[in-house]
Amino acid sequence: MSDMHTTYYEFWQETASRIKDTLPEQEFNTWFNRIAYLKSEDKKVILAGASQFILDTVIARYRDLIVNTLSELTGEDINVEFAVISRSEIEQINKPEGNAKEKEEKQEPVQTQAKPKISNEKTLRMKVESNLNPSYDFGNFVIGDNSAFAYNASLAIAKNPGSSYNPCLIYGGVGLGKTHLLNSIGNFIINNTPELKVMYVTAEMFTNEFIESIGSQKTQHFKNKFRKVDVLLIDDIHFLQGKDSTQEELFHTFNNLYESKKQMVFTCDRPISELKNITDRLSSRFERGLNVDLQPPNYETRMAILKKKLIERGSSMSEEILNYIATNVCTNVRDLESSLTKLIAYSELLSQEISFDKAKELLGILPSLAANANQTLSIDTIIKVVGEYFNVSSFEIKGKKKNKSLIQPRQIAMYLSRDITEYSTTEIGTEFGGRDHTTVMHAYDRIESLMKGDEAFANTVQKLKRDLTNVKK
């Protein structure tokens, strides 16, 4: 190690301080609090992170900024390298120097006492009994602007269940990471506070067990199973729409746990206000606590996800191919992984490197262009039909211009997308140029109001709706 080690450390502190002034506070805290100055050599600074995905994201987003700032401050061409070390080591390095010894003395006995309490084998068994997927944890969730709020809320809940954010609802379209976060909460709690009883179920599992308990006359056993837990995690509550008896049972379970200050976290594919055939009193319970949404990942996050998955698979792929996937697959994480898996499988099975042209050929119509093929009607089709009727282009409807001639067709297209498909407002907003779900909700309410007061306008919307029901994708 060179004599410049201490000096470089001081330069790193100043670098971090300058970067903090240029970034939003949440963004800086999300990434720079998760890396640490490890050591230095001649004209080289080595930073560390607790996982490869953290480092990949920091490298992709901030490496040039870090290198340029360090070089400017030192007057030398500084090379920055990265290494993976444990999370506890990161926390230890980042402790304020004056309090490090005191904190170490306070924390060390707790760690040495707590860890032997439960073996890895027993921890795994507890997770399986709780229906959790042990492979989902906070460490392998790729955080982006689209998911930072939901991630941090989930982590806060996992660290202190039953406190401030109870209940919590995480909502968003398919494949965005809701199930990952829900399982991460449960796994974190079992790892760190194994004395708490955790239960994860999907809404379908909850419904099926309830029906079975009625048939076998074991309803009390069912009630005990779900009302005597410390943490209840229920996935995909939109499945409960129209299931009145199950909603009634969940309502009472909710009240019982809430009054006992037990933590509840739910996920849904849309905001609660958009669910149909859900009782008002149950809906109000879901909305009582913290509601956070997951948006589709932006380009930078999509690239970070792809690179992380490549590392996990021990594979490599050209930046050109990764850019092609990240640019075209804008729907969700699941579609990103599916596209990448297809290319990796081809390369591995045929033992040959994937070229850019071969990648395009294999991927064909990417998920973003397929517009969620499981839907009966695509949003692009709706936009096209409405645009043709009003003599405006699809590009203009999706665009940012707010001309009077565009606002109404755009709102009608949003209204019809919400009315005749199963897409959530979050997904619809994404298809309309990345607009927020509240914009779609406003458009729906606006068109519905106009239809009630203007018969001719209502007839126009109904005609478009009839035309669309006859259109094949």
From TrEMBL:
Protein location: Cytoplasm
Region (Domain III, AAA+ region): 131-347
Keywords, in A-Z order: ATP-binding, Cytoplasm, DNA replication, DNA-binding, Lipid-binding, Nucleotide-binding
Any GO molecular function: lipid binding
Occurrences of domain AAA+ ATPase (ranges): 164-293
Binding of ATP, residues: 175, 177-179
GO cellular component: cytoplasm; plasma membrane
Domain of life: Bacteria
Biological process annotations from GO: DNA replication initiation; regulation of DNA replication
Stored CDD domains: AAA, Bac_DnaA_C
Ranges for region Domain I, interacts with DnaA modulators: 1-105
Stretch list, region Domain IV, binds dsDNA: 348-473
Stretches for region Disordered: 94-117
Chromosomal replication initiator DnaA C-terminal domain mapped to chain residues: 378-447
UniProt record similarity statement: Belongs to the DnaA family.
Domain notes per entry: Domain I is involved in oligomerization and binding regulators, domain II is flexibile and of varying length in different bacteria, domain III forms the AAA+ region, while domain IV binds dsDNA.
Role of this protein: Plays an essential role in the initiation and regulation of chromosomal replication. ATP-DnaA binds to the origin of replication (oriC) to initiate formation of the DNA replication initiation complex once per cell cycle. Binds the DnaA box (a 9 base pair repeat at the origin) and separates the double-stranded (ds)DNA. Forms a right-handed helical filament on oriC DNA; dsDNA binds to the exterior of the filament while single-stranded (ss)DNA is stabiized in the filament's interior.
Stated name of the protein: Chromosomal replication initiator protein DnaA
Organism of provenance: Sphaerochaeta globosa (strain ATCC BAA-1886 / DSM 22777 / Buddy) (Spirochaeta sp. (strain Buddy))
Gene name of this polypeptide: dnaA
